[in-house]
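TICKET: design request
STATUS: open
ATTACHED STRUCTURE:
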């Protein structure tokens, strides 16, 4: 299968997710948003890595905007028997089967000094990867969050998230394309139920050793939010750096 055909299929999958909400019946129309983001990765060693994510979100109808700053640290272990490039790796290498991540999220609504939305969250993640036949990778991610919501609120809540993802790498020369699809339910202690589900389809493409571009479509349903459905288009620029001994 040619790289062009794979790219077309990956973009079609992202557009299908983007349009899913418009085909569902409901009293309230979905909210359409764009989510630009810049992710910077610094590899300290073959197993340690730090990163900083800067995601933004804007509603296309109301022009409401919010932003987040997310520093985090990763530790990967458990070597697999083959090499591949993952969606968030700058080059092919021996794949680690497990990854542990810890980080912090600070976010607020923009233009109103965080009056509408303010969040401070500490989180931890466990990633477990399963290589399948045909170069397909199946991965599980469990994430737990301790959250303080509201500008002046000191009330603590927690949230559990489980993500199941499939991805596969296709390469042609220096270009690497990694289409993927994932689904993620959220459990929120404030409601004592699974209130949110996200479905994401898209692809990342890398054409240089330190740069990758990721485009995806997201459909989100939240039973406890005033906006039940969100359909979002994400464009993410990944920048990769290495300290000298990690080369």
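STATUS: resolved
RESOLUTION: sequence designed for all positions
ATTACHED SEQUENCE:
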């Amino acid at each position: 299968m040619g790289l062009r055909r794979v790219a077309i299929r990956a973009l079609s999958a992202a557009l299908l997710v983007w349009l899913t909400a418009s085909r569902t019946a409901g009293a309230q129309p979905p909210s359409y948003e764009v989510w630009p983001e810049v992710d910077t990765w610094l590899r300290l060693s073959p197993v340690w890595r730090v990163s900083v994510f800067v995601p933004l979100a804007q509603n296309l109808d109301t022009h409401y905007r919010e932003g987040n700053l997310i520093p985090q640290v990763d530790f990967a272990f458990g070597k697999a028997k083959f090499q591949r490039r993952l969606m968030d790796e700058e080059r092919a290498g021996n794949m680690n089967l497990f990854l542990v991540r810890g980080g912090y999220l600070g976010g607020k609504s923009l233009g109103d000094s965080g009056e509408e939305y303010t969040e401070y969250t500490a989180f931890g993640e466990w990633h477990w990867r399963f290589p399948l036949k045909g170069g397909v990778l199946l991965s599980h991610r469990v994430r737990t969050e301790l959250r303080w919501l509201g500008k002046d609120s000191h009330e603590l809540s927690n949230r559990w998230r489980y993500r199941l993802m499939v991805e596969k790498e296709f390469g042609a020369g220096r270009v690497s394309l990694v289409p993927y699809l994932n689904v993620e339910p959220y459990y929120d202690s404030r409601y004592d139920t699974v209130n949110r589900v996200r479905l994401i389809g898209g692809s990342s493409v890398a054409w240089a050793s330190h740069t990758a571009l990721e485009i995806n479509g997201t459909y989100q349903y939240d039973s406890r939010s005033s906006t039940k459905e969100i359909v979002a288009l994400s464009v993410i620029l990944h920048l990769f750096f290495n300290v000298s001994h990690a080369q």
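CLOSING REMARK: Residues 3-246 form a domain with the Lipocalin fold (CATH 2.40.128). The chain has one helix and twelve strands.
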